[in-house]
C-alpha cells in the first residue's frame, strides 16, 4: 500500500463521499482515529456503511436507519471483516468522523486526523485479517503523513463514544504494527 499524490491509497477501493471539506490552512495530519461501525448494528457484510457515508442510506430500509439517514458523516477508510479496504475521502481532505472531539488538549480532531472505521461493534472481536490490514494501512499512512499518535474514537470523544470498544485488542494491533 502506498499513498499517491492525489491522497488515495493503492490497495483500497475508492468510493467518493461528499461528506468532507478542506482542512484548515497549515493543518498537519498527526493523528489516526480508530472507530468501529456496523449497519444495522451487529450486522456485517451489507452495503449500508457505504450508503451511509455517501448519503444514499434509505431510511425505510431498516428501522435503525430512520434515525441516522439524514446525518452527514464519513471516514477516510472502512476496513471490512474480510480485509477489503474502502477509501471514501482523500487523506489531504477533512472527513467528518470524530465530531466534537479533542486529543491531548487540542480540539477539533477532524482538522488533523485520519479516520479509520473497522467493521465491527463495541462487543465483537475483530478478525485476524483486520488487524493485519490495519497495521499495513497504518504503516502506509505513517510513511506518507506526519502521524505520531493513534487513538480510539472513545479517547477523543469520551463522553459521547465507546468505539472501537473493549474487544479491540490494542496489544495485538501494536504487535502487528511492529512486524514491518
General description of the model:
- The chain has 180 residues and is α/β, with parallel strands linked by helices.
- It has a single domain (13-178), classed as Peptidoglycan recognition protein-like (Lysozyme-like, 3-Layer(aba) Sandwich).
- The chain has 4 helices and 10 strands.
- The strands form 3 sheets. It has a 6-stranded mixed β-sheet. A two-stranded antiparallel ribbon has the order 2-6.
- It is globular and about 40 Å long.
Concise overview:
The protein has helices at 48-53, 128-144, 153-156, 170-178, and strands at residues 13-14, 20-22, 31-37, 77-79, 85-87, 93-95, 102-103, 106-107, 113-119, 149-152.
Attribute tags:
4 helices, 10 strands, globular, Lysozyme-like, 180 residues, single chain, alpha/beta, 6-stranded mixed sheet, 20% strand
Distance between the termini: 13 Å
| CATH top level assignment | Alpha Beta
Helix and strand run: EEEHEEEEEEHEHH
State the oligomer: single chain
Helix content: 10-25%
Mean pLDDT value = 96
What is the correct CATH architecture?
Answer: 3-Layer(aba) Sandwich
- Strand fraction band? 15-25%
Number of domains: 1
CATH topology, which one?
Answer: Lysozyme-like
Category by helix and strand content: alpha/beta
Question: Count of DSSP helices?
Answer: 4
